[in-house]
Amino acid sequence: MNKTIAVIRGDGIGPEIVNEAIKVLDKIAEKYGHTFTYDDVDMGGIAIDKWGDPLPQAMLDKCLAADSVLLGAVGGPKWEGLPGPQRPEKGLLRLRAGMGLYSNLRPAKLWPQLAQASPLKPSIVEKGIDFLVVRELISGIYFGEHKTVEENGEKVATDVMLYAEHEIERIGRIAFETAMKRRKKVTCVDKANVLDTSRLWRAVLHRIKEEYPEVEYGEMFVDNASMQLVKDPSQFDVIVTGNMFGDILSDEASMLTGTIGMIPSSSLGDGTRGMYEPIHGSAPDIAGQNKANPIGTILSAAMMLKYSFGMDAEAAAIEAAVNKALNDGLRTADMMAEGCIPASCSEMGDAIAARL
Ligand code: IPM
Ligand code: MG
């Protein structure tokens, strides 16, 4: 197959981790007879520096013209003082919205080799951690109106949280469909004791659940869910939730599995074109030092092969190669443990490519 991949290296450790994912993709192309063509896209801080805009229209157009998008990370202290609409993060939000990517899947799965890196007690970890956060990605409070005004001699800020039924419906369906391929359990996480948007989520999900009698459906307030995640993560299979709650809980979820550096994500809309990125950020403190863990990005590339290109065997091969590298004791700094072999970012990429 011939596929064009828009590549957004972004800021901080972004370029380093994306280069390792490309190394792995090139090896896949060679082994399986595919051609991957990469089209570089500037987004985030680098785009602000070069073009004065975190996502120029021409860059969004390149992403829309590609078969899929691979992203490292955006943002950093250099651009933190900028007003909201000009920040690197805004480029990412506009890209997600511009591509219609409403469905964000963030798997939290414990790799047995990293069990001791989990901050949870062994008695909890032993029960297993394998769940998926299905996060609504292009609506909710991140996309409502943001404004700050002067009132009675002080500043007053508002951020509007808005959900329309169709936005809940489409992400709800993804959650149930995904659960059918897993352990058939969906937990809606919300704040329905306080928020109207959450009550609407529940009403819509109640309608959908009637179509999936095999799926065990439950609901949990987000404060309780954040506690249950550390108390007993084995109770979760698919968590479906809004944009902000999903953002927060997926960071918590990732840490349970040992390191946020291992977690990939997919963002999809109605078609097969998606965007794939690790869930960690640009880690400016270690940028340019060849220290970052590239596995979250490499596994994101594997998700791209599977979900956007239908290359299931190739995706499985990448996961198996990651598994082998971990079995062989290779660890980047974020997951280093006694008796293991320290690997830099590029050494980890080489090791995974070599095991394909
Ligand atoms: C994430 C990030 C982004 C988000 C930021 C960078 C806008 O935290 O992908 O989780 O909040 O969605
Ligand atoms: Mg986040």
UniProtKB/TrEMBL annotation:
GO terms for biological process: L-leucine biosynthetic process. The keyword Amino-acid biosynthesis applies. Binds 1 Mg(2+) or Mn(2+) ion per subunit. PROSITE patterns: IDH_IMDH. Keywords: Amino-acid biosynthesis, Branched-chain amino acid biosynthesis, Cytoplasm, Leucine biosynthesis, Magnesium, Manganese, Metal-binding, NAD, Oxidoreductase. Pathway: Amino-acid biosynthesis; L-leucine biosynthesis; L-leucine from 3-methyl-2-oxobutanoate: step 3/4. Its main location: cytoplasm. This is 3-isopropylmalate dehydrogenase.
